[in-house]
Amino acid sequence: MSASILLGILIIATGAFSSGSFSIPFDKVTKWKWESSWLTFSVFAYLIVPLIICLIVAPNFMEIYKTIPSDNLMLIFILGAVYGLANLTFGLSLRYLGVALGFCISLGLMMVIGTLLPPMIDGRMSRLFEGNGGILLISGLIVSCIGIGITAYAGILKSRKLEKLKGVKANSDFDLRKGLFAALFVGVTGSSMSVGFEQGKMIAEETVKAGTPELFAICPVFVLFFAGSLLSTLIWCIYLGIKNNSLDDYYKGESKTLITNYTMCAFASFLWFINYIFYGMGTSKLGEFSFVAWGILMSLTIVCATIWGFFRGEWKGI
Fold first, then answer.
1. CA 203, 208, 213, 215 torsion: positive or negative?
2. 211-227 pLDDT, tens per residue?
3. In a 3-state reduction of DSSP, which class is residue 200?
4. DSSP class of 232
5. What is the C-alpha R_g of the chain?
6. How high is the mean pLDDT of the chain?
7. Is the Cα torsion angle 49, 55, 56, 61 positive or negative in sign?
8. Is 248 strand, coil or helix?
9. Cα–Cα distance, 219 to 226 (Å, whole number)
10. Where does the chain have alpha helices with state H?
11. Distance of CA 251 to the CA centre of its chain
12. Which of 224, 176, 183, 186 has its CA nearest to residue 66?
């Protein structure tokens, strides 16, 4: 393994820790409906944070877009909108399954599908079966599938235990059926992010030509991709806000509560988005093996989220 690839993996691992931790600040958000906290998080995560970072590292990104075919830009935007739906459902999977189970099943499926789709689309699939590296990758995906199955079974055991035990401090919203359905949906649609980032390579290449360091070349891709995510999220969360009469969450209530809620949602968005900065930086070091970056990110994120699940007592008494 070359030093460049090893460095890339270490950088991605840093992002995975951030990604696996992003949901923790939501514990401090109170007196808001789910859609209110998720929309606030999304505005920061999909718009404010990526735009600020992109303006710092690639301020001429709008000019770069003009050099890219419109159909490529539209495809990235649409894939972003699909991912917005996936992330909405991911929030529900965390609600119904908890951090440990929600991350493991949802991201496990995203890892497998998101690792295989890009090379299937651009013709690199044959490389997955070349040499020891390809064999290890396929073996890893098989092990991941087994792990997903074991985790799902653990969820079934947890559901049965919670029906019997009283006074156990656990996720009060736990619902295995709803959670597994949400996780399956996330696994299928969430892989659109991996495909979207791969489709953004042309933008990244033009960004480097314009003078942006290669480590930050993916930032203009983030802005376009997550703009699509914000659109689908806005539509759904506003719909829920009208349905649940929760649109006044954003301005009604005690000042201290509002400040805490906005701050925690912003902090969660920073943790969530910064993991993709590390992902982009790490991917740039992997060269032609960039398609494995997604699997590395997802697997290490699952490890981190699982550790958080134990700290949060999600398996207490089970």
1. positive
2. 998 888 889 999 999 99
3. coil
4. H
5. 20
6. 83
7. positive
8. helix
9. 11
10. 3-21, 34-42, 49-57, 61-65, 70-122, 131-164, 176-189, 192-199, 201-209, 219-243, 255-283, 293-311
11. 28
12. 224
What is the distance between the alpha carbons of residues 219 and 221, in angstroms, rounded to a whole number?
Answer: 5
Q: How far apart are CA 298 and CA 300, in angstroms?
A: 6
Amino acid identity at 85: L
Measured between alpha carbons, how far is residue 98 from residues 16, 91, 282, 294 in Å?
Answer: 18, 10, 29, 23
89: tokens are 């459902």
**Please, what's the largest Cα pairwise distance for the chain?**
62
DSSP character string of 203-225? HHHHHHHTT--GGGTTHHHHHHH
SS3 assignment, position 252: coil
DSSP state of 193: H
| Burial category of 243 from C-beta neighbours within 10 Å (exposed 0-12, middle 13-18, buried 19 and up) | exposed
CB 261, CB 29: distance < 8 Å = yes
Please choose, from the candidates 125, 64, 108, 83, the residue with its C-alpha nearest in 3D space to the C-alpha of residue 272.
83
Q: How far apart are CA 282 and CA 8, in angstroms?
A: 4
273 DSSP assignment: H
Q: Chain-centre distance of CA 195, in angstroms? A: 13
Q: Domains of the chain: which residue ranges?
A: 3-311
Number of Cβ within 10 Å of residue 173's Cβ equals 14
CB 246 within 8 A of CB 35: yes
Q: Give tens-digit pLDDT for 177-233.
A: 888 888 888 878 887 887 888 889 899 999 999 999 888 888 999 999 999 999 999
Quick one: CA torsion of 160, 161, 164, 165, rounded to 10 degrees? -160
Record the tokens describing residue 164, joined without a space. 């019997």
